[in-house]
Every structure is written in C-alpha cells, then in structure tokens.
Amino acid sequence: MGEDGESPKINHSFLRDYVTEADVISTVEFNQTGDLLATGDKGGRVVIFQRETQSKGEPEELGESGEYNVYSTFQSHEPDFDYLKSLEIEEKINKIRWLPQQNAAHFLLSTNDKTIKLWKVSERDKRPEGYNLKDEEGRVKDFSTVTSLQVPVLKPTDLMVEVRPRRVFSNGHTYHVNSISVNSDGETYLSADDLRINMWHLGITDRSFNIVDIKPANMEDLTEVITAAEFHPKHCHLFVYSSSKGTLRLCDMRASALCDKHSKIFEEPEDPGNRSFFSEIISSVSDVKFSHSGRYLLTRDYLTVKVWDLHMEKGPVETYQVHEYLRSKLCSLYENDCIFDKFECVWNSTDSVIMTGAYNSFFRMFDRETGRGVTLEAWRESSKPRAVLRTRRVYTGGRRRRGDVGVDSLDFTKKILHMAWHPAENIIAIAATNNLYIFQDRVNPETQ
Amino acid sequence: MINTMECGVDAQSLISISLRKIHNSRTQRGGIKLHKNLLVSFVLRNARQVYMNEKYAEIYRMQQYEEVMTVCNEIQELNPLELAEDCEEQTGECCGSGAGTESASLCGALLPSSNQAAQPALLQTSACASALSLRADEGCKETDSSFYRSCCAEAYPVSNCEFSPVNSMHCNKTTVLDLDTHVVTTVENGYLHQDCCASLQHCCQGAQTPAKKRKVDFGYYVSEIEEVPDFTPCKRTKYEDCSYANSDHLDTSNISNLISIFGSGFSGLVSRQTDFEQAFNGQFCSKQALASLGAWTRAIVAF
Q1: Nearest-CA residue of chain A relative to B32?
Q2: Per-residue pLDDT tens for A19-56?
Q3: In chain A, what residues touch B38 (CB-CB under 8 Å)?
Q4: Which residues of A touch B250 (CB under 8 A)?
Q5: Who's near A313: CB < 8 A, 6+ residues apart?
Q6: Quick one: which of A67, A231, A272, B299 could link to B228 by a disulfide (CB 3.0–4.6 Å)?
Q7: Which domain of life is it from (chain B) (predicted)?
Q8: What is the mean pLDDT of residues A388-407?
Q9: Residue A353: what are its φ and ψ, rounded to 5°?
Q10: Which among B4, B29, B35 is the top mutation candidate for probing chain A, defined by the most A β-carbons within 10 Å of its own β-carbon?
Q11: Which residues of chain B make contact with A89, given a CB cutoff of 8 A?
C-alpha cells in the first residue's frame, strides 16, 4: 500500500498495520529430523516448510540444496468466543510441537490460548484411475455403457499435501495456555497455562490429568504464575516449569499424582542492591528449555539468559547479558510495554551454543566454551541471500566503531521473540515480525 | 529499598501509568492477561511504597503539628460550634467502634476541636490512625467487608489532601465516601491550598460554608475515584461517562479478577511492613499505608 502524496488527508497506514498484524509469526519449530519447519502466526495459520533434498549421487554444491520451501499451509485455529465469560479467544498460535515420526505421516500439536489440536500432515502422490462405475471426473457412468471390467490402478499425480485435524483437546484450561511439550514416551504431552499444568494422552481428548495447580485458595494471595513448562528429553517422569518470580521447579511424576510439591527448585537470590520498580518484571522467566543432553536448563528473563545445572539448585552455572544497556531504560520500556516481551531461547544440537533474540532485529549467540557472545541481525536490507552475516554491535561506551548502533537508535518494534535451531545441523530459523529468516552455517554445516 | 535513581519517571507517574495499563487490559482482545497484570501490580505496589515513604518522610520533617494547629485554629474561627460538633462526632466514630457507620474524616480527626485542644494533633492523628489501621488490619485479614471498606475509603481522601507539599496544610476539601451506603461527606473550608485553587474553584465557591454532608449516586462515586490515578492533590482528571462506569461495575467476573490481582499485590504489602517501619520511625507510616489498602482495591473496582 503506497503512500499517496495527492491525498494527504487519508491515512492508509492503519490498513497496512491491520493486514500485517495477522501475519506476525508467533512460533517457530523444527521437527525431530529438521526436514520440516513449522511456523504459526497471529492469524491462526500454520505454514510448514520442507527442506529440499539433495540430488542423489551428486556432491552437494554450495547454495544449491538444503533450502526450505513452503510445503503446506492451513488454518489451525479460528477466533472464538467464550459466551459464559464474554471473552474473545484469540486465534494466535502460541506454540507448535512436532510429534516423533512413526510412519509416513507427520503429526504436530498446535495451540492457541485455550485449545490444543493434533494435525496429521500426509502426502498423496498417487491416485486410483480406471473405475468401472465412475468416469474420470467421478460422475457415475451410465451402466449400459459398461461392457467390460477393469481393475483400477494407481497412477502418479502431482504431490498433494493434506492436513487434517485428528484430535481437538478443548476445555482443559481456564487461563491462557503458554506451553505444550511432548513427552519422550511418545504417548502423552503436557499443556501449561498461567496457573495449571495438564497432562494429556494423545489419543484421549475428553479428559486430562492435572499435574500442577498453583492457584491459591484466595486469588488475592496470588504472587506468581507459570510462564513455561517442558518435559525432560529423556526421562518421561520429569518435567520443569518456570514462574514469573524467576524460579524453576523440577517435578517428578512418580512422587505423586499432583506435583505441586517440587523435587527441586532452582532460584537465584535477588541482589538487594539492584532493586528497582521493575525488579519483579525483569526477573520473570519467559522461556525454559532442557538441553539435548537433559543435563542443563536454559532460561531467559528480560535482560539475561542463564544456564542451570540440574544438579545445582542454588543458582545458574552461567549467566549471559543479552542487552544490559537496557537496564537504565526500563522505565520507558515499561511505558511502551516492551518490558513485557517474552523472548525465547534455544540450544544448538550439541548444547555448546545458545541463542536468543533482542530488539532492532538483533539476535544473540553465546558460545558456552569461550563465554563470548555475538550479535547478528535479521534484516532484509542488510543481508542478501547467501551473503555472510556480519556481526553487529550496540554502542555502550568506549571506542565507537563504524556500524555500531546507539542505544537510543534501537527500534523496539523490531523484536526477535521466536526462533528455532535445527536438531542436527547449524541451521537456524528466526522469526522477525512477519518474516522468517533461515540462516545456514556454510563453513561448519555439520555440528562437531 | 527500591532504587529510584535510574528511573526517569517519579512514583506518582508510575502509579498512573500502571493503573492505565490495567484499565486498558480490560478491553484488550483475548481477555485479561493474568501474568501481565500481576507484573503491573508489582510495579504499582513498588511505586506506591516509594511514594508513601517519600510523602511520610516529608510530612514528618515538616513539623506537622504546628501547621495543623494553625489550620485548626483558623477553621474554628469560621463556625466553631457546628464544626466542633461534627469533629467530635467524627472523631468519636473514628476512635470508637465505628463499625459500618459513616467514615470519619481523618482531617476532621486532626481538628482538635474544643475538647481536645490540649493534645498535639500529631499524636491525635496517630491515635486515630492506629485505631483505624488496627481495624484495617483485622479488616484485611478477616475481610470484614463493611467496616474495612469504609475505614480504608476514609484514608483515600487523606492522601489527596494531606500530602500536599510545602508548608501549608490548609485543606480546602476533604471528601470521604462510605462504599456501602454511598454517602459522600465533604468538609470544606475557606482556605485554599495554592495548587488546588485552579481546579477546585467551583467547589470552593461559597468557601465560608461549614461542613456539609450530601448523598451522591454511584455515578458520581466513580468520578471521584477517577482522581486516584493522578494522585496529585486536588487535580481533576477527566470524568468517564457514568453509564460506562456503571456497566463496568456489572462486569463482576472481570472486576473480581482484578481485585484479586491487586489484593495480592497489596497483601504482599501487608507482609512487608518492615520496610515501612525502617524508613520511618513509629507506626504512623505503616499503619496509614495499611489503612489505605482498601482504597486502592476499591479504586480498581471502579475500572
């Protein structure tokens, strides 16, 4: 929608914003092999990308293969209305999680604020032809024209991807669902809202087990909510959930049916000298992820990412500053609501590098072995396809280099909240508002 | 203690920003976000804590007693008989049982009136406040609704009027509202605080009038509470449409959610009395803060 200089009185920008709001990507997830990449957006749609397979028998050429193209698109959730509470239910996809593949079809779970759905994604590249009673278009033939019998045969056709809803898990949550996590047993999954965590069986939609309930008897006593939850990657009885107070609780489902009592609680004591109006907000954990090994936890709060060792509860083993320069700007970030942004964090396949998003289309990667962090940018203007990403820097004092960005020049509307890392290779998917960037490490495509 | 140095905005503005956020969240798509509102309530509590600390410290330093005595003497000159009666009655209610009756005006309590002239107003205030806040304590814990509300609503106008900076403690208007009977009590005198002149001109016309009571309807009550967000003495904010406010009041489930949220924030405040007590000797500060807890909770109700 171009700006029209001839009609200054009409401002079309609101239309532009309306159109793109639904396209804002709200979740990104690779499947277990990394061949499929799913994104969900605020409009309730899911787009699945598939990696192009390399030509058989030919060596891989740089830039020729391994790219992701659109595989399928479907409408997962529609806007809904809760008549009892007079509440609108947003169709925004909060999370997508793939199930481990068991046959030719792929399954994924997608959730909005209230309802989780299981989708079956299957391909069809053959169709039967040569029916006796139906013609090519499917119309019933006049029986008098049938003079002989033939056996229908399967003929190849253009590839068709079908996506069908197989289960709908509804009415399980009073509050807004923020996480889903598939169990390593392949049969169950958990869903977490602000106050409760439920465990479902993938085959049963009319009931679920409530495994965590932190709702106080008197809501006036409420002091914390659940912000994220995940099953352990290897132990099907363990899961972790994070809270708005910055604590992590590891729960063992073998201990009791209701896991309100944690097995371990991970929290870092607050530094009393650093207390401000916004201490509670910036300590709220927005994302928690188990490492692939299952030994560590990665958490993200507003200003830092932290690595925790499951064997040590008293504090994180590593803390990385994502954008410490924002600490003095918390007031204005509170006013414009940016302080409530929930950033995700991810591990690479070998748990040696962690990554998280920031503002101004920047995202940060931290090498755990060296402790060093690097800032990269996901922005169309500054990176052409197949160009090498150059590192960026936010100027916070000292010698100013060319290309440094001042803190006051940061664009807080361009935020990188959602991202995913390929399970085996150095390929990352970054969601920047309504754009998806896929970066591949050509130098070290395979992780060591 | 909260470090306010890095924040470019003062506590008062933070309070109004926070309340505005809560108000806006009620009309956001997707319903009230519990997590976000909980975090906002923490900011609200922190800002209020800082604001109260600052204001009480200021008052304490300002040698309140002498100023109040001056005010009271001047007020007594207006219409000593009627006011004294009123004050006596109100003070009695305040420091007596007072359950469920019309709220006593703390300002009225400050007026020594003829039978208590000997007592320093500060002590009297503390005594009254202690009595109030003790009940507020109980009210908070037992949720004894009627007295708790009226007691705490009483403290709300205090903050509007009492905490005016500078030397003058001239109170141009003290309004108290009983939330159960919706009776608004207004005490007016002829002495205007400088800052209040412009905004409350119309109120203070006929400034020599004695204390009067009037009944108002619910719509006006909401308009009164609208002043809370600004939290600046005597500053008038824009009034919401009464019908809108009424329909909000009927949306009980959302309102009760909000109350619950803010109740939690302020229950937290109850348990952190030590901060107050360290900041300010004596129990005056913390108990006043406790007494006004309900006013905040009820202020949110109006949204």
Answers
A1: A87
A2: 478 999 999 999 999 999 999 999 999 999 999 986 55
A3: 222-225, 244
A4: none
A5: A264, A265, A266, A267
A6: B299
A7: Eukaryota
A8: 86
A9: -130, 140
A10: B35
A11: 30-31
Given the DSSP bridges, would you call strands A405-406 and A394-395 parallel, antiparallel or unpaired? parallel
Identity at A207, one-letter amino acid code: R
**pLDDT exceeds cutoff 70 at B194:** no
- pLDDT tens across A303-328, in order? 999 999 999 999 999 999 999 999 99
Q: Per DSSP, what are the bridge partners of residue A49?
A: A37, A70
> What are the pLDDT digits (tens) for A401-413?
888 999 999 999 9
**Of A176, A181, A180, the residue nearest A195 (C-alpha):** A176
Contacts of A70 (CB under 8 A, 6+ apart): A47, A48, A49
Is-contact A41 A91, C-beta < 8 A? no
Query: Where does A91-185 show beta strands of DSSP type E?
Result: 95-98, 106-111, 116-129, 153-169, 179-182
Close Cβ partners of B102 (under 8 Å, ≥ 6 residues apart): B93, B150, B176, B178, B181, B183, B185
Tokens 């203690």 belong to B1
What secondary structure does DSSP assign to A294-335, as a single string? SSEEEEE-SSEEEEEETT--SS-SEEEES-GGGGGGHHHHHH
Nearest residue on chain B to A112, alpha-carbon basis: B30
The pLDDT value given to residue B7: 72
Contact A244 B39 (CB under 8 A): yes
Q: Which residues contact A118 (CB under 8 A, 6 or more apart)?
A: A99, A107, A108, A109, A165, A166, A167, A168, A169, A202
Buried b (16+ CB within 10 A) or exposed e, A244-257: bbbbbbbbbbeeee
Short-list A345, A332, A381, CA closest to A360: A381
Exposure b/e, B84-112, CB count within 10 A at least 16 = b: bebbbebbebbbeebeeebbbbbbbbbbb
Contacts of B270 in chain A (CB under 8 A): none
Bridge-based pairing state of the strands A304-309 and A238-243: unpaired
**Cβ–Cβ gap B3/A225 under 8 Å:** no
Neighbours of B142 (CB within 10 A): 10
* End-to-end Cα spacing for chain B: 30
Distance from CA of A284 to the nearest CA of B (A): 9
**Is the pLDDT score of B243 beyond 70?**
no
- pLDDT digits over B14-42, tens only? 999 999 999 999 888 888 899 999 999 99
A169 contacts A205 by C-beta, under 8 angstroms: yes
Judged by CB atoms closer than 8 Å, whether chains meet at A222 and B39 is answered as no
Give per-residue pLDDT as tens, A176-228: 999 999 999 999 999 999 999 999 999 999 999 999 999 999 998 999 999 99
User: Nearest 5 degrees, angle CA B252-CA B255-CA B261?
Assistant: 140
User: In this complex, which of B4, B31, B38 lies closest to A225 when CB atoms are compared?
Assistant: B38
DSSP code of residue B192: P
Q: What is the ipTM of this complex?
A: 0.88
Asked whether A303 and A282 are in contact (CB, 8 A), the reply is yes
Chain B: residues touching A (Cβ < 8 Å): 1-4, 6-9, 11, 14, 17, 21, 29-31, 33-36, 38-39, 42-43, 46-47, 50, 251, 253, 256-257, 259-261, 263-264, 267-268
Query: Which residue in chain A has the smallest CA separation from B17?
Result: A335
Average pLDDT of chain A is 90
Angle at B91 between CA B85 and CA B94, to 5 degrees: 140
CB atoms A335 and B8 under 8 Å: no
**Any chain B CB within 8 A of the CB of A317?**
no
Q: Count of A–B CB contacts within 8 Å?
A: 105
Q: Is A243 on the interface with B (CB under 8 A)?
A: no
Note the pLDDT of residue B281: 37
The answer to whether the CB of A42 falls within 8 A of the CB of A434 is: no
The confidence score (pLDDT) of residue B67 equals 75
**pTM (2 decimals)?**
0.67
- Cα B103 to chain centroid distance, Å, stands at 12
